[in-house]
From TrEMBL:
Membrane-topology descriptor: Multi-pass membrane protein
Organism: Crenobacter intestini
Cofactor(s) essential for the protein: FMN; heme b
Domain Ferric oxidoreductase per the UniProt entry, residue ranges: 42-154
Keyword list, A-Z: Cell membrane, Electron transport, Flavoprotein, FMN, Heme, Iron, Membrane, Metal-binding, Transmembrane, Transmembrane helix, Transport
Subunit text: Heterodimer of a catalytic subunit (MsrP) and a heme-binding subunit (MsrQ).
Name this protein carries in UniProt: Protein-methionine-sulfoxide reductase heme-binding subunit MsrQ
Transmembrane segments: 44-62, 74-94, 106-125, 145-162, 168-184
BP-aspect Gene Ontology terms: protein repair
HAMAP family, A to Z: MsrQ (MF_01207)
This protein's record includes keyword Transmembrane helix: yes
Subcellular location: Cell membrane; Membrane
Any one cellular-component term (Gene Ontology): plasma membrane
Amino acid sequence: MSARRVWQALLIALAALPALITVVEVRAGVADPADYLTRQSGWWALAWLLATLTVSPLVAALHAPALLPFRRTLGLTAFAYASAHLSVYVAQVAPTPSVVLDDLIGSPYIVAGFAAWLLLLPLAVTSSKYWMKRLGRTWARLHRLIYPAVALGCLHYLWLTKSDYREPALFALLAALLLAWRVWRWRRRAGTP
């Protein structure tokens, strides 16, 4: 087994660890399991999304292109946690479909979160090498949807927070820095000051 496959397997195990810990904690007994699962899966979805965006600056800073293949694993992990987040929410409101409509009309944070998930969906579907070859240059343009998805995810987190804004603000700050780095890099390549 190659070193890259070993690192990939370790990354997948690390990605699954928060889900495993959350399940163990729910089985041990938490006050509101559905709320806990929703919060944990959402937190980790955003954390893995930011980790995905961190790969490119790390590659540039460390001159380590060998890190690039791990970006796909991180992105798919973020999508898996975001899908779990959405699934737990839907499972809670499925018995009363009108609640979903009420949430979409009266809760902008639900709209922001759902929009973020919708933007991530085509990225997950087209993440394979097959789609990279098939879509060509369009693939890179399509995968820029991660930027508005991250912004919407941060907005979702900020809007649903009731009192302590430190954590969502930290996520938003990290996202802003990662996006600013990309803008700086694009302008530098284009020769724009």
